[in-house]
Each structure stands twice: as C-alpha cells, then as structure tokens.
Q: What sequence folds into this?
C-alpha cells in the first residue's frame, strides 16, 4: 500500500518482531480461547485449534489461505487489521463472536470484532494501539464450524463468495448457529446473516430447513454486488450453495 501510494509514506515503521515471542500464543482460559496478536497462521496450525472439531473452520481457512510461504509470515491480527472485503479470518472469527484486546501506553480496551470493522481498510485502532490478543468463548461440545472460499482460483484472496458457519446441536436441534459472509455489510465488509440465524435457531436440523433458510430467508437480508469478478445474481446463487454446504459440513463434523 505504501509502494502504491495508497497510504501516505509513514515517517517510521515499527517492527513487531522484537515482541513477537510475547505476542505468540494460543491458550484456553476460563473466559475462552485467546490468540496472541503475533501468532502466525503456521503457529496457529500447530495448536489444538487445528485438532478439535469445534474449531474445524480454522483448518478450512488455513488450507486455502494465500501461499504456503505466506502462512509462515502472516498473523491473524494482521489479517484483521488489513480489513478488506473478504479477509478470511474476519469472516471466520465473526461466527465465533470474537473480541479484540487492544493495548497502548494509555491502557487497554476490548472491542467486538464486528465493531472493530468500520469500512474497507478502516478499523477502530488508534495509531498507538496494538492488538494484544483475540478472544472468543469456548464453544460447547456438540458444535463445529465450516468455512468455504469459492472462487475459480480459491487460493490467494477471494473472488466470488467466502462464508463461514458455526453450528451447535442438542441431538438434532439447532441450539446455536452463526453465519457470516464476505462483503455483505453496507460498507462491503464481512458481516453476519442474523435473520437467517434467527430462522434456524431452535429448529430440528433437516435438508428442508436448510433449503428454506438458503432460498427464502438469506436473500431477504443479504444484498450481493456486481464487480469485475462476477455478477450479483451469481454471487447470490453461490452464497446459497455456500450456506447449505457450510451447515451440512458443520453438522457432519459434529456427528463425526
Ligand atoms: C499473495 C497474497 C495472498 C493473500 N491471500 C490471502 C488469502 O487467501 N486470504 C486472506 O484473507 N488474505 C490474503 N492475503 C492478505 C493477508 O491478509 C495479509 O497478507 C496478512 O494476513 C497480513 O498479516 P501480516 O501479519 O503480514 O500483517 P502486515 O501485512 O504486517 O500488517 C497488516 C496491517 O496490520 C497491522 N498489524 C499487524 N499486526 C498487528 C497487531 N498485532 N496489532 C495492531 N496492528 C497490527 C500492520 O500495522 C498493518 O497495518 C494475501 C496477501 C498476499 C500478498
């Protein structure tokens, strides 16, 4: 962005590597899961987040994220701050109700990821603030997630649709469901599909219910856009497919 003059040339650049060790961790605590602001995607892949079905969406994101070399360098926090229309960890962490702990010399504050995202490439982060960690509640036993990036290329950023789903069941009843898609909020940033979530909550899981949620409810709350990648109509059609596949995949993961 500096090279392309999309942001003014900064007077100073601060290298976070000096504090990388302190910022690199993934921990399970009483108040939930904590991911350090310096944790790279590769480091994340070596933790319980990539072994426990409740976090299966993390594996989905990782497998399709950029290039292998990039996964050694890129951090989850860096991905959130980049805040493009389709940053993968934003779409995923929205369905885990993630919050960020921001720290500065003046103290710290907690911000919900949803509120952190203001606009494309614009986040609620002061110049002297750092993402110390990302926090989200530990999901219940009978839950799982799924993430799908649908594009002709799939690797390297996104094109047509990315979507994530978190699902929790009690027997076959949907006790919790969270759904997110890339660039659906009015500023074309990733957002939740809350009407569809409400429709699904409390219902018995069945293919008919998925069909209804995708075909009848989702289009009433979600506007899709035409850009040089594809048309709004095609994007909407594929969003329905992604929703159904994500829900089915999360269901199958819960059921083993
Ligand atoms: C070839 C290529 C392919 C890509 N493919 C994908 C893809 O498939 N999916 C996808 O989502 N994205 C993709 N990206 C973009 C990707 O989001 C970023 O490259 C990466 O996630 C940024 O992480 P980073 O740690 O390198 O952050 P940096 O690029 O170093 O920083 C990004 C921004 O975050 C700030 N920042 C970083 N860490 C912190 C912190 N702890 N606290 C506060 N601010 C911080 C920096 O100051 C900067 O403003 C791709 C990029 C490239 C170049």
A:
């Amino acid at each position: 962005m500096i090279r392309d003059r999309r942001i003014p040339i900064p007077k100073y650049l601060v290298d976070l590597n000096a504090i990388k060790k302190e910022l690199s961790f993934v921990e399970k605590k009483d108040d939930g899961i904590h991911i350090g602001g310096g944790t790279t995607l590769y480091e994340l892949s070596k933790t319980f987040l990539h072994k426990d079905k409740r976090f299966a969406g993390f594996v989905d994101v990782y497998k399709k994220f950029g290039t292998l070399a990039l996964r050694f360098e890129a951090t989850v926090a860096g991905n959130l701050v980049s805040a493009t229309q389709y940053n993968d960890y934003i779409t995923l962490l929205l369905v885990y109700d993630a919050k960020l702990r921001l720290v500065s010399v003046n103290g710290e504050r907690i911000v919900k990821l949803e509120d952190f995202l203001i606009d494309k490439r614009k986040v609620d982060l002061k110049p002297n603030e750092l993402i110390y960690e990302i926090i989200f509640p530990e999901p219940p036993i009978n839950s799982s997630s799924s993430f799908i990036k649908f594009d002709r290329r799939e690797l390297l950023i996104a094109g047509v649709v990315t979507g994530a789903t978190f699902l929790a069941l009690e027997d076959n009843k949907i006790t919790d469901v969270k759904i997110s898609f890339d660039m659906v909020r009015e500023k074309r940033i990733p957002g939740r599909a809350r009407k569809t979530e409400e429709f699904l909550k409390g219902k018995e899981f069945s293919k008919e219910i998925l069909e209804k949620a995708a075909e009848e409810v989702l289009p009433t709350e979600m506007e899709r856009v035409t850009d040089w990648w594809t048309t709004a109509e095609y994007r909407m059609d594929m969003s329905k497919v992604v929703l159904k596949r994500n829900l089915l995949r999360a269901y199958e993961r819960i059921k083993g």
